[in-house]
Amino acid sequence: MKLKSIETFAGRMICFVRVTDSDGGQGWGMTAPFDADITAQILHRLAARIALEPFEDYIVVADEIIRRQYKYLGSFLARAAAGIDTALWDLTAKKKGVSVAELAGKKRDYIDLYASSMQRSLPVQEEADRLRAIQDKFGYKSIKLHPGIPVGRDQDFWENRTEDIIVAMVKTAQPGTHIIVDVNGNYSVEKAIKTAKFMHGHGIKLFEEPCPYWEIEKTKAVREACAEIGLPVAGGEQDYIDTMWERMIDQRVMDVCQPDLLYIGGFSRALRIARHAAAKGLQVTPHTSNRSPILVMGLHYMSCIDMPYPFLECGIEEDLWAEECYGPLVEIRDGRAAVPTSPGWGFEPDKEWLAKSKYEISR
């Protein structure tokens, strides 16, 4: 494969990537959301030159970008590689006339979703009632709470809010709701274990990212304590370094792996994580916390991996930046969504959004 050009269409939150090959075929991808305009600069400065070289296998391009720019290893480089990688998957699938899911080995047509709240400081019952109303409207069978302060050294927004929202949500949600709690690395080992016991006593099904993600020994200690009471631990959304993922999986730092398809460097690299995790008996569900095209990509991913967690994350906040940039949007019925069947990813960037974006091209 030989690319003729790589284009970016960037805003502060979203950056779409379009690749064009020597035959004129085109594919769309995207970098990770948030500060995406910075990622676009890095894509053209550090990643594009490598991606424009001829490659026999498009799957290796993201790895080559990250490996050969080793002096600049970091999250933004991986995000840039993801934009190119996801565009290459779209290009290849379209040229074959199949969806990305089919190209990757589709096994499922529908994916169950969990409603992921990003509100951390709403009054407890107001948040519980809000989530119950969303659950009733869309049929979600699973909900995720985000209590506490991210990487907050055991701090809460006010005393006992975490415990209070867990109790309120269990009482307010539909009977049998699968509830997940994500504290975004807030806890020390001692606080995490104490809170885990409280969670387990109230029927919480999954404890996500208990400790700062780079402190994997601490997360492992929490997971081992949680294994004794039967509460699975999840993590990995921030990680993008291959050897770190290998250590976390091989040492069973978590029970459920949560690679972000765009933080990690792209669909190809996330699929490799899923294969490794499945070989070790670990479940996988990607980090897809908003309704930008990453949710569409998450549906494709969950449709083809071997050991998926029962639910895929779906953000519930009304973030116009995430939904106004593309179409068609994901339709949710009975708490689930269909895996797109159109060639490629099955979405197209909005033309008006593209016209307002910052444009750059590498040839």
Could you give a quick summary of the protein structure above?
The protein is built from 13 helices and 15 strands. With 363 residues, it is an alpha/beta fold.
**Count of individual domains:** 2
**Poorly predicted regions:** none
Rg of Cα set:
20 Å
CATH topology-level fold name of the largest domain: TIM Barrel
Broad shape: globular
> What class do helices, strands and sheet pairing give?
alpha/beta
Topology, number of strands: 15
End-to-end gap: 15 Å
CATH-defined architecture of the largest domain: Alpha-Beta Barrel
Strand content: 15-25%
Name the CATH class of the largest domain: Alpha Beta
CATH superfamily of the largest domain: Enolase-like C-terminal domain
Sketch the topology as an H/E string, one letter per element: EEEHHHHEHEHEHEHEHEHEHEHEEEHE
What's the rounded overall pLDDT mean? 98
Number of helix segments?
Answer: 13
Helix content: 40-55%
Largest sheet: 9 strands, mixed
